[in-house]
Amino acid sequence: MRLAAALLGVLLATPAWADDCPLDLGRGTGWVVFSDHYLMAFRSDPLRIEVGEPFALLVNVCTRRSGAAELLAVDANMPEHRHGMNYRATIVAKGNGRFRAEGLLFHMPGRWEITFDVRAGSESERLTHDIILK
To answer: What is the pTM assigned to this prediction?
Structure first.
């Protein structure tokens, strides 16, 4: 009972901007990245990223003021190896802050840092997230 009350309290305390920027991209999986100005949720398609296999990213990106934002670029690099992907992602806009970045491929295992360049109006920012690929 206490757990249910605590969960209800968290749901009621969710900021209004979160209602307009869905964090669940389907199947209850993915990652969420926050900054001072943006909120972004993304997941891979297929759900499991394999070495040497192409994949896409489904992305929702919004401003903290409840507006949709634009995804300008997606890239990835391996900081320890000082190189990036051998492929450039293509971004397909799906409307209302939703995007699909296609044509990604991690050619080796290790730590990959994915970068997302986002913009709303004249305000742009780079968001990052690390993925460990085994």
So the answer is: 0.82
Identify the CATH assignment for 5-133 out of 3.30.70, 2.60.40, 3.60.21, 1.20.1740.
Answer: 2.60.40
Q: Are strands 38-45 and 31-34 parallel, antiparallel or unpaired?
A: antiparallel
pLDDT in tens, the chain (134 residues): 443 343 333 333 344 444 566 666 666 778 999 899 999 999 999 999 999 999 999 999 999 887 889 999 999 999 999 999 988 999 999 998 999 999 999 999 999 999 999 999 998 999 999 999 99
The DSSP element (H or E) to which 12 belongs, if any, is: helix 2-13
Token reading at 66: 């409840």
Residue 58 CA to residue 127 CA, distance in Å, equals 15
* Secondary structure of residue 134 in the 3-state scheme: coil
- Please state the domain extents for the chain: 5-133
CB-facing half-sphere around the CA of 24: CA atoms within 13 A:
4
Burial class for 114, CB neighbours closer than 10 Å (0-12, 13-18, 19+): buried
